[in-house]
Amino acid sequence: MQHTHHAGLESLWVSAPLILVALVYMLGWLRIRKINPETLEDWRVGSFLLGLFLIWLAMASPIAALDHELLTIHMVQHLLLMTLAPPLIWLGAPMKPLLHGLPQGFGNAMSHFFRSPPIQRLSRAIAHPAVCWLAAAATLVGWHVPCLFALGMRSGLWHTIEQVSFLTSGLLFWWPVIKPGQGASNGSEWPILLYLFLATLPCDILSGFLVFCDRVVYPVFISSPHPLGFSALEDQQRAGALMWTCVTLVYLIAGTVFAARLLSPESSHQYRAVKSDSILSTVPQTIEQSMEVV
């Protein structure tokens, strides 16, 4: 009963902000469409709203109430928050619509705040691929350590912190891959493929351990009702297999799309054009330096 009551409150405080964010995004999108209909594609709206729906599904839906009874449901939550919702959010290019959806004065203040040099430097440091990768790996492994896992199961506050950390680290992880609002990729971004490959390693190790371990790692599920009828060990094996399959498939799809985009003729032409522009931009400086010598 205590967990059910907490789940009801959690559903309320999660649903309300998500609805508000969706309304602000839609308002901003409509305002942008009035100015320039081609600025933001329609499919990005669907991607962003789907990402918000997956967050709600993981944290506030009736399915979320079963996370204390089945490790498989608990794993579904983690996958939704860290692997599926974040790329959909970033594909929605949320920055501009959200700023345009806010009241004008507040939106301008937020825009100036994000463009300030200290915030720009902090953003570049946080968005470095190494930082994003380490944050995601540490969050994934850390919260699956039995003592921290048990803490999140016993405490409503820590359970919320756990879910928020999965979502935050997921958003960080997918930022270097999608780079919303920063245009097309170029040939210098091939290391992202290695980034995606290395990201599968912590998941593979953890999921392999859960699948092949011959004992229940998280004793809290031993005494749970098991509504689907299988044992705690079988539940653990299913949870590990689900993580293994889902993460590998999502990262494989992302890597394939990224490689195809980099290998496309348009990307190659754009990369050569950028490289040519950078070379041409050095010509005036070279001439100026030569004149100074003369």
Can you offer a commentary on this structure?
The protein is an all-alpha fold and 294 residues long. Helix 2 (42-59) runs antiparallel to helix 3, helix 4 packs antiparallel against helix 5 and helix 7 (129-142) runs parallel beside helix 10 (191-212). It is built from 12 helices and no strands. The protein has one domain. The N and C termini lie far apart (87 Å).
Q: Could you give a quick summary of the protein structure above?
A:
The chain has 294 residues and is mainly α. The protein is built from twelve helices and no strands.
Percent strand: under 5%
Number of strands: 0
Element-level helix/strand string: HHHHHHHHHHHH
Distance between the termini: 87 Å
Largest beta-sheet characterization: none
What would you call the structural class?
mainly alpha
List the defining traits of the structure above.
mainly alpha, 0% strand, 79% helix, single chain, 12 helices, 294 residues, disordered C terminus, globular
List the helices and strands and how they pair.
Layout: H1 2-35, H2 42-59, H3 71-91, H4 95-101, H5 104-115, H6 117-126, H7 129-142, H8 146-154, H9 156-178, H10 191-212, H11 232-263, H12 265-293
Helix pairs in contact: 1-2, 1-4, 2-3, 3-9, 3-11, 4-5, 7-9, 7-10, 8-9, 10-11
